[in-house]
Amino acid sequence: MITYNVTISIDESVREEWLQWMKHKHIPDVLATGMFTSAKMFHLLTNAEDDTGHNYTIQYICESMERFREYEAKYAPALRKDTEDKFGGKFYAFRSLMEEV
Fold first, then answer.
1. CA angle (96, 97, 98) in 5-degree steps
2. pLDDT tens sequence across 54-84
3. What is the end-to-end Cα distance of the chain in Å, rounded?
């Protein structure tokens, strides 16, 4: 099993709008691709000392690397563009893959 983790620092000026958009639009759109079995969103309670934004992480569960690669090739570019078009300049995203051991 693969966990696709997206950590996001979002500017306070759009935080509430972004949260609603993530919960009701973006995460459902990612899940609708059929490449992930579930998703959870967390608010990070610890931040780096120089961080002035609010940090969140979204963890998407994927059955295999093949499914994740398919997501990256077919769906990720458009979904990332949607986020950039709506909140560009107001967030920073860091992505990582984790494998359960």
1. 125
2. 899 999 999 999 999 999 999 999 999 999 9
3. 9
CA pseudo-torsion sign 98, 2, 62, 75: positive
Q: In angstroms, rounded to a whole number, what is the distance separating the alpha carbons of residues 26 and 22?
A: 5
Q: Which pTM was predicted?
A: 0.91
* Residue 70 · residue 35 · CB < 8 Å: yes
CA distances from 31 to 1, 37, 45, 99 (A): 16, 7, 26, 19
Domain spanning 2-99, CATH architecture: 2-Layer Sandwich (3.30)
The whole-angstrom distance between residue 14's C-alpha and the CA centroid of its chain comes to 16
The domain limits of the chain are 2-99
